[in-house]
Amino acid sequence: MNFKKLLLALALLPMVAFGNEATYPLDNAPSRSSLSSLQNGARLFINNCLNCHSASSMRYNRLRDLGLSEDQIKANLLFSGEKVGDLMTTAMRPADAKAWFGAVPPDLSVIARAKASASGSGPDYLYTYLRTFYKDDSRPTGWNNLVLPNVAMPHVMWQLQGVRAVKMVEIDDPHEHGKKIQTMAGFEQLTPGTMNSAEFDSATADLVAYMDWMAEPGRESHRRLGVIVVMFLALFAFLAWRLNESYWKEVK
């Protein structure tokens, strides 16, 4: 890479770093770490996300870490002839996805880490994004999103949440006297879903918790190992300090 290309790359770094910045305020994703929540999140992920997206860094058999047996994985989470040791891929061809949605759906293996920004954590982004779809007949899919305006993705969990529209109200423009502007005043429920609002938020929290776990399945074991290493180093430092004291006491 020559000097000019290096300067160009450095100039683009801020754009890359803040590319995930959300303009819509993000909600804090509830913390879910129980096996039952993660298992439910895995079920929701496989049923709703793997139809279009892949998670090519994750194998189905890794779900054993969530307390599921191979028989449970086969019976409840494999539907199209996959094997327990297979990667979580989608049958949708990239060319078809681009034709239908205008873009190839991204791999979701580490999406919970990739979406972290100054606006909030990756789980915060996903939790807010999945709960802010609304009906928009001007869009090709019929759906839009507050976190990611003009999103190409349809609302895959609309049957659970129901169909909602954005309610707009007119307010005085704070920057120009006598002018009115439209602002969002919440959602209007057009048709009910199979879940009420609290149930859908809870299910979304489980899904996001699973995606966060999937981005780093070994996180908890790494943390436990880190605690053990710190305790060992503390013990070693104490013994080294006492040995040093004893040595110099004899010298003096």
What does this structure look like?
With about 250 residues, the protein is an alpha+beta fold. It has 2 domains: about 20-215, Cytochrome c-like domain (Cytochrome Bc1 Complex, Chain D, domain 2, Orthogonal Bundle); about 220-250. About 45% of the residues lie in helices and about 15% in strands. It is built from 9 helices and 6 strands. The chain has helices at about 5-15, 35-50, 70-75, 95-100, 110-115, 120-130, 160, 195-215, 220-250; strands spanning about 55-60, 85-90, 135, 145, 160-170, 180-190. A hairpin with a 7-residue loop joins strand 3 and strand 4. The chain is extended. It starts with a helix and ends with a helix. Mean pLDDT is about 85; it is low at about 5-20.
**Cα-to-Cα separation, first versus last residue:** 61 Å
Number of domains: 2
- Helix/strand-derived category reads alpha+beta
- At the first level of CATH, what is the class of the largest domain? Mainly Alpha
Can you count the helices?
Answer: 9
Helix content: 40-55%
Shape category:
extended
Share of residues in strands: 5-15%
Largest sheet: 2 strands, antiparallel
Identify the CATH homologous superfamily of the largest domain: Cytochrome c-like domain
| pLDDT averaged over residues | 85
Strand order of the main beta sheet, please? Answer: 1-2
Summarize the helix and strand pattern as letters.
HHEHEHHHEEHEEHH
Uncertain parts: 3-19
Radius of gyration: 24 Å
CATH architecture of the largest domain: Orthogonal Bundle
Q: Would you count the extended β strands for me? A: 6
CATH topology of the largest domain: Cytochrome Bc1 Complex, Chain D, domain 2
